[in-house]
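Below is how a single chain appears once it has passed through the pipeline. First comes the sequence as given, then the structure the pipeline wrote out for it. We keep one example in the README because the format questions we get most often are answered faster by looking than by reading.
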Amino acid sequence: QVHLAESGGGLVQPGGSLRLSCAASGRSLSGDDMKWFRQAPGKEREFVARIWWNTGFTYYADSVKGRFTISRDSAKNTMDLQMNSLKPEDTAVYYCNFQSYWGQGTQVTVSS
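Resulting structure:
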């Protein structure tokens, strides 16, 4: 069993930045990857970024590449998402994911 808890969402103006965090507990994350997804109102959940826990290798959706940075702290079992140059279309509930486990989500709203 894995418990995931996101934090760090909020309201930000276009062009601003936010940093999301996901805290994982329950078992080792070694040997697998963790992901961020997001879901905007009326849309399907979509992939944002992933990081391989052992190597730190990262991969991004084209829509966020160059603006978002995913990272992890293996000692703390946390994964972060640094979001810069935010756009209104980034507005969504952001979820962290590990295998079949999901967090409760954190709301990000980009609006002036």
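The chain has a mean pLDDT of 95.

See the next section for the split statistics.
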